[in-house]
């Protein structure tokens, strides 16, 4: 049930995953990944194709899912459609929010694709998942603000790299090929930023825009998280509905 979601046991594959993540995700790594992927010169494909790739991906960081990520995409979108039947834009966000995980097709390690995100370049908060297992990290004993200034805004922070940032860049740099507004890009960019939106960390960096983003992400999180309890059978009618929706909101191939 809901109270058992996001339960992280010590003796689990999730624990081993986060150990790898904290060993590798630092400012140097994040800057390297952004140089590598912000160019979007890997492949051209439609959003429909990206969704189909999720049929063969199971998130190793998620304690609540053992099913292909495509099922979770439809579950989230359907939860949103029940609450907002006329907001097709929001439904699309539910469907595509994890499609940055196509990074796995480029042979990236799991810790560069999935997992809760956190800020690099400043002190690690103790509320992050498996904090007690962080033995060595350049930010463990950093100052609270590190390289950043208070009030600088979330958009000026470097977060651990993964599918959120990658898909955000895909939407931002292909904005002439889709109809999604920036409000929804930001939901995608920060939906895995649990230390911020759920644990209230990093609030000293927020600016006026970030308070609206926080409200939007918190609402979206209810659809994202609790949809994992829903039926995993996705009917052909549901799939057809979202195929048509993707074709309505996206035009042709995108740069990835």
Automatic annotation (TrEMBL):
GO biological process, one term: inositol catabolic process
Pfam families given in the database record: MIOX
Gene Ontology annotations for the cellular component aspect, listed alphabetically: cytoplasm
A GO MF label: inositol oxygenase activity
Keyword Iron: yes
Cofactor: Fe cation
Compartments, record wording: Cytoplasm
InterPro entries reported in the protein's UniProt record: Inositol_oxygenase
Keywords: Cytoplasm, Iron, Metal-binding, Oxidoreductase
UniProt key word Lipid metabolism: no
Name this polypeptide is given: Inositol oxygenase
Organism: viral metagenome
